[in-house]
Structures are given as structure tokens and as C-alpha cells.
Amino acid sequence: MELYKDEASFVRALQAREPRAAEALLREYGGLFKSIALRWAPGLDWEDIVADTVLAIWQNADRFDPAGSFRAWAGAVARYRAIDAVRAAARETPAGQHTELEALGAAGPDEYFRTQLEDLFRGLSPEDRNRLLERYFYGYSPRQLARRLSLSENALNTRVSRAKKRLAALRKGEGTHEE
User: Rounded to two decimals, what is the model's pTM?
Assistant: First the structure.
């Protein structure tokens, strides 16, 4: 990021959609995106996944929360793009050609469970999903998250608890994201 004095100025440049920021994104984080693509989507075209990741970050940079780590956020975007590529490849594979799908899924049980968890989270409302991710994945304390969302700590804890209950219901196949 030699063009930018710090990560905050780099993110502001991305949010302003400066072309040099996109180049810096690929230069600084391209290796990370490639390694994520190779790990999560083995056998697929990693260059397409990296290009999709850069485009997604470019188009959604305003969704990045400056209180978090840009590297972690960008890595999560890359991971989701890789998972989406695997799912698209699975949909395009004719029935009976399981060997290619097995190669794509050969990464191990941890990735299988991560994918299952991501599928469950997709059943939640965006608000519930974001609260749970920010609380448990990004590590915000209840106080930090409540302040960030302009809620009391008790109100936040209640909403997180309800989101966890909805997630448990989804896991059991009992509900949807609607109340």
C-alpha cells in the first residue's frame, strides 16, 4: 500500500472507487485471495475467483466496518466467492460425474461444517446474521457492538439471544428467518 499512508486511507480510496485503489488491492491482497481460492475451490480457476473477489470488494467497499480488520473482511469476501464458485460448479456438473465433485469437496470435514454453518446463516435475516457474525466471529464485545448499533447492552443481548434461537430452529429445520 505504498500509495496510501495507512489502511484507513486505502479503504476510503476503495470506497471512492479510485482505480489506483483497485490496483493496490490486487497487488497487496492478491496473494491472500489466491491462497483462499486454492484452498476453498481446488481444481477451479483461481484467477476467476480472485477477479470476482476484487470486483465484489470494489463494489461493496462501503459495507466494510472500519472498526474491524480490512484484511479479515477481504479474506471473508474471497472465501465466499470461492464457495460460490464451488457451488456453481456443482450445479453445472451432470449427474453421475461425482469424481469432479469429490475432488472439489476433498478439503476435509472442517470445510464441510463451515459450509453448512454458512448455509444456516443464509436462512437468518441480515440483521440477525450480522449481529451473530459481529459478536462471535469478529469478536466484538457486547458493549462495543451495542455502542456501534446504538442499542443498550441489554437490548443487544436480547436480540443476539433471539438470533441464536432462530439459528437453532433453522438447524432443526423448524423455522425461517421471519418471525
Answer: 0.54
